[in-house]
Amino acid sequence: MKADTLIVIAKEPVAGRVKTRLQTEFTPAEAAALARASLADTLAAVRNTPVRRYVLALDGQSGPWLPSGFEVVEQRGDGLAERLAEAFEDAYAGGPMLLVGMDTPQITRELLDVDWADHDAVLGLTEDGGYWALGLRQPDRRALVGVPMSTDHTGADQLARLRLLGYKVLLLPMLRDMDTPEDAAVLAACFPALRMSRLHGRLQHSASPGLLFEKALSGARVVATGIDGQQVPSLCEVDRWQAPADEVDRLALSRCEGPVLDIGCGPGRIVTALAERGIPALGVDISAEAVLLTTNRGAPALRRPVQEPLPGEGRWGSVLLMDGNIGIGGAPALLLRRCAELVRPDGLVLVEVDPDDNLDDTAPIILHADGGRRSRPLPWARVGTRAVLRHALAADLLATEDWRTPHRAFLAFRRAPATLRQASYR
């Protein structure tokens, strides 16, 4: 005896609603894409198995990932146990049914086309304590309702419930499901032909730079390299960024005139140090994690790209580009011109430059995480004094100070007087 009906129970693969545990390594959109690929692999294996009926019990809307031949039923019930029970009831057509989830893309026709022989039920356990398949001759709510779901003993509890009801259970091979980034990596390595595996391989080499930067802020080891693979010093120095402002930072901040705008504030050490001095300051960063860390320190921060409208445009007493943030966007001239727009007419633009005066490197950088992911190229610039002075002149900023310590270098600028700017255009 074999199953008459194959059921797949699944959620619509929408970003933020599926595979949230993958989001420690992947963006919500990437996690949803992996879920979509896993579901497509599962549906293909099911469709390749000869049975009378194919049923998809779906939470959400179907999409182009659904192959032909499936009857779609809406999931019903409160909680997963009830939804499973309802799926069996909705799919029942008088013959045995085998239900699988969307998290084991490695399933095959051989695993699904199983002969139940003299058994009353089929159960396939997973390595994390759950189960990937459940087969019943007919619907039986007693077999499911009340079984604790999504625990590390759900599979054992389900097996115990079936046996308590007097069912003779055929156990299928144990599989690994895809819940965590480690699960995804293992499955991709073991089953490289899957859609999920091919997508995983592409994502490994095209991570969002912002995601890897946020991993660094959360404590993961992330390094930056040029596109040639050579490590870029001074980037991703998260330990220094998260520490209190040091002596060099304080020396730079002693030159600031409030209010101060810190562009690329990171975890907020500079904005915090300014607040401790009683100087009004705001940090801006595109990283949600950076803004959260800054506000957790009690300092104000705003998540926004510097190119978008910002509070107080043209009225800031000082605008800061610390920690090599002159490199943001890979176009120092444009960034300095933006700083000139933000600062008031008599305000200060303070820029930390590379200690190598002659450096002028606008090649993109790539971030690498310990887990093996690397980012797509990130526009960035590493520039020393000579290049910054040249770009500042084009932005109508006049250098007023050039100072350095053994390992760090700074330039201070003021906006050129209107008369001088007008003369330069004649």
From TrEMBL:
Pfam families attached to this UniProt entry: DUF2064, Methyltransf_23
Domain of life: Bacteria
CDD domains recorded: AdoMet_MTases (cd02440)
Family annotation (InterPro entries): Nucleotide-diphossugar_trans, SAM-dependent_MTases_sf, Trfase_1_rSAM/seldom-assoc
Name the UniProt record assigns to this protein: Glycosyltransferase A (GT-A) superfamily protein (DUF2064 family)
